[in-house]
Amino acid sequence: MSVARPFPSSSTLADLTSQTTAHHFNVTPLTSHPQKEHHETSSAMGLKTLSAKAAAALDKELMSTGAFSIDQLMELAGLSVSQAVYRVHPLSKGQNVLVACGPGNNGGDGLVAARHLRHYGYKPSIYYPKRSKNELYQRLAQQLEDLNVPFVDDFPTALKSTDHIVDAIFGSFKKCSFYCWLSFRAPNVVISGFSFSGEVREPFPAVIKALEETKLPVTSVDAPSSWNIEDGPPSSGLGSSFHPEVLVSLTAPKPLVKHFKGRHFVGGRHVPA
């Protein structure tokens, strides 16, 4: 199968690394609700961020008033992630990208990103140990298989032959409350609101530990896996020393960005001004 290599436009992506205001991304409500219902200001960075409750409300509007489908939102999110990887890790730095996907929507974003990266000319491989039985995720995986994108079983071993890592394991579960009707039931995590909490179960502890220890650049989707959407990294234990080089916030930054020091993008800018 021939592979097209379109130049990845950045129209859905904003680089906030050096920005001190929120002027370059859109978190305007789709209805006439006061902005304070959707915004939470992070004084540490001067950015407006979305709390868990506000992110849930915004996603609800996107899927009702905004008339977006779940497939569309996931496609836009994954496209944004692929564009960010292209920006920070051009093909000249190495073509091998390992995409670690969790069992839920963050993992779906990773599957979409991998497909776009394949079309850009990268050689992605997928670590997806807890495949969803939902049709949407099965179709996303099938699309990658049709492109001859390999699925790997051993994450630490796969690290030895990659140049860049995409962390799409847990994130902040930003979309969970409105995607859960897709039959996502993750036995390995606990979902509290839109934030990761609880014990990380097999096989993911070893993966997060590897992410903490690797010298390879890591791009995290919406939130570094194991981080809390409000409070950032755990104070101790697994994930406490995981600080990825790149973060792609989806729709708008979350409060955890005050703990993030790397390259920061906002993707999926599909909310009208």
From TrEMBL:
Presence of the UniProt keyword Acetylation in the record: no
Domain YjeF N-terminal positions: 55-273
E.C. no: 5.1.99.6
Keywords recorded for this protein, A-Z: Cytoplasm, Isomerase, Metal-binding, Mitochondrion, NAD, NADP, Nucleotide-binding, Potassium
GO cellular component terms listed in the entry, alphabetical order: mitochondrion
A GO term for molecular function: NAD(P)HX epimerase activity
Superkingdom of this protein's organism: Eukaryota
Keyword Transport in annotation: no
Binding site for (6S)-NADPHX: N105, N106, G107, G108, D109, D222
Chief location category: cytoplasm
Compartment(s) where it occurs, according to its Swiss-Prot or TrEMBL record: Cytoplasm; Mitochondrion
Residues at which K(+) binds: N106, D167, S225
Cofactor binding comment, as recorded: Binds 1 potassium ion per subunit.
Cofactor(s) listed in the protein's UniProt record: K(+)
Family from the record: Belongs to the NnrE/AIBP family.
General function of this protein: Catalyzes the epimerization of the S- and R-forms of NAD(P)HX, a damaged form of NAD(P)H that is a result of enzymatic or heat-dependent hydration. This is a prerequisite for the S-specific NAD(P)H-hydrate dehydratase to allow the repair of both epimers of NAD(P)HX.
Protein name as annotated: NAD(P)H-hydrate epimerase
Annotated source species: Colletotrichum chrysophilum
